Amino acid sequence: MKIRLALLLLALAATGCLSRSSARLREQNAYLAGQNEMLRQQQAQSDAQSPGVMIVGPVQHPHVAWVTGLTLAQAIATANYVGPDQPKQIIITRNGQSAAMDASVLINGTDITLEIGDTVELR
């Protein structure tokens, strides 16, 4: 009887330790997940505030960081275009004024130098 009681107490103690350690592990994981989310939000906010070019359309990275001499083709490649077909039209907006062009211009080898703050829309 005493042996059974001792084994039962040991089993309960071991279960309690596992529960505490697994609870602590869950708490640590939740804390780290929160920290990671905060860092992602800070990075997104930093990207949005840093100078560059915005690409509107089916791209993976709509904010392209500015580098001197950035061209339209480089910006589209950096944004990683993922549309099912090639874009038909490209609209560049600079200082509130927009200019549309046929996307085949890029395929034919003509490239355009972009400026900080430009928005490029791929249709």
Strand arrangement across the biggest beta sheet:
2-1-5-3-4
- The topology string of helices and strands comes to HEEHEEHE
Class based on secondary structure composition and strand pairing: alpha+beta
Label the CATH architecture of the largest domain: Roll
- Give the biggest sheet: 5 strands, mixed
Round the Cα radius of gyration to an integer and report it. 28 Å
Strand proportion? 15-25%
Report low-confidence residues grouped into runs of 5 or more. none
User: What count of structural domains?
Assistant: 2
End-to-end C-alpha gap: 80 Å
What is the share of helical residues? 40-55%
Number of helices: 3
Reported by name, the CATH topology of the largest domain is Outer membrane lipoprotein wza fold like
Going by CATH, the homologous superfamily of the largest domain would be Outer membrane lipoprotein wza domain like
CATH secondary-structure class of the largest domain: Alpha Beta
The overall pLDDT average reads 82
Q: Tell the overall outline.
A: elongated
Summarize it:
The chain has helices at residues 2-49, 72-79, 104-107, and strands at residues 52-56, 63-65, 89-94, 97-102, 119-122. The chain is α+β, with helices and mostly antiparallel strands.
Structural notes for this entry:
With 123 residues, the chain is of the alpha+beta class. The chain folds into two domains: 1-49; 51-122, Outer membrane lipoprotein wza fold like. Helices cover 49% and strands 20% of the residues. The protein has helices at residues 2-49, 72-79, 104-107, and strands spanning 52-56, 63-65, 89-94, 97-102, 119-122.
